[in-house]
Design a protein that fits this description.
Layout: H1 2-17, H2 21-27, E1 31-40, E2 51-55, H3 69-79, E3 83-87, H4 98-106, E4 114-117, H5 127-136, E5 145-151, E6 154-160, H6 167-181, E7 192-196, H7 203-208, E8 213-216, E9 225-228, E10 235-237, H8 238-242, E11 248-252, E12 255-259, E13 275-284, E14 295-301
Parallel strand pairs: 1-13, 2-3, 3-4, 6-7, 7-8, 8-12
Antiparallel strand pairs: 1-14, 2-13, 5-6, 9-10, 11-12
Length: about 300
């Protein structure tokens, strides 16, 4: 009920009042390919240069329509990532578009695979129906599970958690999923560990398990950014008022979190917070400790 009321207030009403012009402008807005280079202290030389294409929060529905899917796919294809991670909210408020979304997700491909987790909007109408249709289509929707991928002589752990409400529940599923995937005492640690979780609060329990990189969405970056670098969270906007991790890169010890601004929206306006597909290039950290975690950014628009 709350999601429906929010949809009426922030989606349907603006579209009606603007006679659809807000919606047309929203769907014609630029979609950025945001390139980031992240140095990881423990990354093996063999994985130096590994790329991950990260997209989230498509919110396909009345505002971001299914007609936008081909343009989104073009940007993802242009990134040419070694793997693709999709961190939830494929749909907005209806399963009517699910066939279009599933067909689009089937077109994603990457050498090391495509990995997906659900978001809260995917569960608003029919959670079981959403999961069943994704899995019946053969898509790799990860619900509290992990996969070990061998690449270039290295072992990578790619884990994905289901969406659950509340920090305590989220912490529990992250802990259980990562504990089940952890190497036995007789085997070495993973050469790279990744966690996909719709909500960025998964970063807190991920740090306790020393996950190298967590990928999340959910916040849309706040959609409205009034200033950058003005708070301890990095930017001042709607998400910084409600989320500990509004957008961008965060580090705690040797663990990192990237929160993408996502593709879709809950209101047909973004200010200083463009929709994006993120391309993350992982680099082996240099020998000098003070340079660990240095990040380079660049953007192109489509």
């Amino acid at each position: 009920m709350r999601a429906t009321l929010r949809h009426v207030a922030f989606t349907s009403a603006p579209l009606w009042l603007s006679r659809g012009s807000f919606g047309r402008a929203h769907n014609n807005r630029p979609l950025c390919l945001a390139r980031h280079t992240i140095t990881l202290p423990n990354l093996p030389q063999a994985l130096d240069g590994l790329t991950i294409t990260h997209l989230s929060d498509l919110h396909i529905g009345r505002l971001t329509t299914a007609a936008q899917l081909p343009r989104i796919l073009e940007v993802v294809a242009s990134a040419k990532g070694d793997m693709i991670a999709v961190t939830g909210d494929f749909i907005d408020l209806s399963l009517k578009v699910l066939d279009d979304v599933i067909a689009a997700m089937h077109k994603l491909s990457a050498p090391l695979g495509v990995y997906m987790v659900p978001g809260n909007h995917d569960y608003l109408v029919d959670p079981h129906g959403f999961v069943d249709r994704f899995r019946a289509a053969g898509l790799r929707l990860m619900l509290n599970e992990a996969e070990i991928v061998e690449h270039a002589g290295c072992r990578m752990c790619i884990a994905g958690v289901d969406f659950v409400h509340g920090k305590r529940g989220l912490s529990r599923v992250v802990h259980d999923t990562l504990r089940a995937a952890r190497p036995t005492p007789s085997t070495p640690r993973f050469d790279l560990s990744l966690l996909l979780a719709h909500h960025p609060d998964a970063f807190d329990p991920a740090c306790r398990h020393r996950v190298d990189l967590t990928l999340s969405g959910h916040t849309h970056g706040g959609q409205f950014i009034l200033g950058n670098g003005v708070t301890r969270k990095g930017s001042l906007g709607l998400a910084s008022l409600t989320s500990r991790y509004p957008r961008g890169l965060y580090r705690r010890d040797n663990s990192y979190l990237y929160v993408t601004t996502g593709i879709g929206a809950w209101f047909p306006l973004r200010v200083n917070c463009p929709a994006e597909v993120a391309l993350l290039t992982l680099r082996r950290a240099p020998a000098h400790p003070h340079r660990h975690g240095h990040v380079h950014h660049s953007h192109t628009q489509a």
